[in-house]
Design a protein that fits this description.
Distance between the termini: 30 Å
Number of helices: 12
Shape: globular
Bound molecules: nicotinamide-adenine-dinucleotide
Number of strands: 8
Helix content: 40-55%
Strand order of the largest sheet: 3-2-1-4-5-6-7-8
Length: 300
């Protein structure tokens, strides 16, 4: 990769993360964006989430209506993988968090991707090195881990796989800057990268405090918001993330690090069995009313 001049970007997956990433690419970086999913209804839903988000920016006075229309006109929905990737300088993959599904997708993308184009994954837990191994040019494969919602969260973790080149790392740091984001570099492809590696054990510990009867969920959250200045307490955050998602990440940590300090909390496991997943199921550590329809159950 010779520091490509990025103009055309393709985002694979038009879900919760993909639609937001596509919007940031068009809105802040000014890229020409193709947004791909596997069914027309999924790309339609992604485009409608982008329209809603742009309308919110306009309503809050952060964006002119004409500018919002112009941004929207730079985002092209499609189902055609070949056409989407063959002219792109950067492909950002935000498809479902399933290793087999992603590996199949990387093989297909690799057939049509220009040899100097970058393939970046937004995965939260799957090895970048493994994803790279499914492609012809693993030196061009890198992690670009956005936070939810991508339109507002200022950070991207950049993850170097075992074969990722310096030029690829540098190119995605430049792209992130064009998207208005700050970056940090994970020099190794390690589970949970930086943020989730620190967060998950803290969430598990909070659940242990509940199951040991040390304090109520309300007091644990009050302690952490007031004592550590977290914007949200760990148990409320667990309800937002989804207890099933949190359990999934803990299990990846246990398997990859083989260290009992990452053992999932038995209480979280039991709550997942009971369908108490947090906000999306209507109840977790707190009551949320009717299940939220917008939050999918895939990875954080
Ligand atoms: N949800 C979060 O807070 C969060 C945060 C950071 C990273 N991530 C990561 O982002 C990725 C997407 O997560 P999400 O929450 O947006 O999930 P999501 O379920 O909302 O969206 C995934 C989309 O990918 C589509 N898809 C499935 N197979 C595909 C294929 N072969 N080609 C193109 N699209 C395909 C699905 O139809 C769906 O629309 C995952 O890797 C996840 O780990 C999620």
């Amino acid at each position: 990769v010779s520091g490509p001049n990025i103009r055309k970007v393709t985002v694979l997956g038009a879900g919760l993360m993909g639609h937001g990433i596509a919007q940031v690419c068009a809105q802040t970086a000014g890229y020409d964006v193709t947004l791909l999913d596997v069914k027309q209804e999924f790309v339609d839903r992604g485009m409608s989430m982008i329209r809603d988000s742009l309308a919110k920016f306009v309503a809050k006075g952060g964006l002119e209506k004409g500018k919002a229309d112009e941004i929207l006109s730079r985002i092209h929905p499609t189902l055609d993988l070949r056409a989407a990737v063959e002219k792109s300088q950067l492909v950002i993959e935000a498809a479902t968090e399933d290793p087999k599904l992603k590996l199949d997708l990387y093989r297909k993308v690799s057939e049509h991707l220009p040899p100097d184009a970058i393939l970046a994954s937004n995965t939260s837990s799957i090895s970048i090195t493994l994803l790279g191994s499914a492609t012809k040019n693993p030196e061009n494969v890198v992690g670009m881990h956005f936070f939810n919602p991508p339109q507002l969260m200022p950070l991207i973790e950049v993850i170097r796989g075992a074969k990722t080149s310096d030029a690829t790392v540098e190119a995605v740091r430049v792209a992130a800057k064009q998207m208005g984001k700050e970056t940090v570099l994970c020099k190794k492809d390690s589970p949970g990268f930086i943020v989730n590696r620190i967060l998950l054990p803290a969430l598990t510990e909070a659940a242990l405090l509940v199951s040991e009867g040390v304090a109520t969920p309300e007091d644990i959250d009050k302690a952490v918001t007031l004592g550590l200045s977290w914007p949200m307490g760990p148990l409320k955050l667990l309800d937002y993330v989804g207890l099933d998602t949190a359990l999934g990440i803990s299990e990846v940590f246990m398997q990859e690090f083989q260290d009992s300090k990452y053992r999932p909390s038995p209480l979280i496991r039991q709550m997942v069995r009971a369908g108490l997943l947090g906000r999306k199921s209507g109840k977790g550590f707190y009551e949320w009313g009717s299940p939220s329809s917008t939050k999918s159950s895939s990875g954080k």
